[in-house]
Amino acid sequence: MDRREFIRMMGLAVGATALTPLYAADEDMVVKAPPMPDVPATQLSEKCWYIRAKDPEPTPENHGFFSNPGFIVTSEGVVVLEPGGSVQIGEMILRQIRKVTDKPVVMVINTHYHGDHWLGNHAFVEAYPDVPIYAHPATFQKIKDGAGDFWLNFFNRVTNNAVMGTIVTPPNKVLKGGEVLKVGDTELRIHHYSNPDYEDRVHTESDLMVEVPDQKIVYIGDVAMRRIANAADGSFRGTIDAMQRWQKQFAGYTLSPGHGHHDDIQLFKDQELFFKTIWDNVAKYYEEGLSPFEMKPKIMAEPFMQQVASKWPGYQSTLGKFISVAVQEYESSMF
Ligand SMILES: [Zn+2]
């Protein structure tokens, strides 16, 4: 497929409006920000890799690269988890894959609808026009509702237009959780948290995790991270419940997260303790009639916060938002 066809196809797929800020009427006037520098991949096991973003937030200096793509090299080809948040990042990931294998990319999986986890689809469709891109139905819905433009505009604003030229490229195949995919010699098990009491939510209602059983690796997207950034789409009770479940289920596994360093199930344990410390205290102080503003210093005095969470990026700036979200969830849980 040539570039003209590709752009036309994308226009049909997402509606021409998505293209207007990025492309002039004549495709020769395409404005595309320069490539981003290589970030070397880290090998987790024989088949599994990830590319660790050093920064916790998008900036002009990091070209908006602040979440960790991963890839699995199977006998049949490469499976990419998290294609990055721009065409430039997607192309950088492809260059790192090329250093490891010359096998084609045969599958892309988007773990949820936050833009840093799927806008790089563009680069993979350009390189492999027929590549299947999987995501949860809730990711499809959010992209249909405009998540692509929302995140692109945000990234362009905070990176000084380093993601310019990225075309909103939605996934094209559905995973709901529970599937077992066979890619050459490698089995992939797909996990989605399901508990209607908490709207099936952990970090969002669309989270997918990808388990590679023969490598004892699980790519967890954003369901757990040592970073305080965005609780608005998630559930405190869903997160606590999921973390308790998955600590048992994935004992002995290495977790490759969407943000921060890989680790064992201690990553799930820390996430559980962080969310539980906030939730339990919000419940207690809400009943005592305290405002979120008054709760904050009391929660910050908890040992887990002082000893562990206070070292995470975003603690000073974003903890208050987490407490507000917990208060809202607590209020709605009473009806
Ligand atoms: Zn996210």
UniProtKB/TrEMBL annotation:
Domain called Metallo-beta-lactamase: residue spans: 66-259
Pfam families per record: Lactamase_B (PF00753)
InterPro entries hit by this protein: Metallo-B-lactamas, NDM-1-like, RibonucZ/Hydroxyglut_hydro
GO biological process: antibiotic catabolic process
Family the entry assigns: Belongs to the metallo-beta-lactamase superfamily. Class-B beta-lactamase family.
Protein name (record): Glyoxylase, beta-lactamase superfamily II
Organism: Sulfurivirga caldicuralii
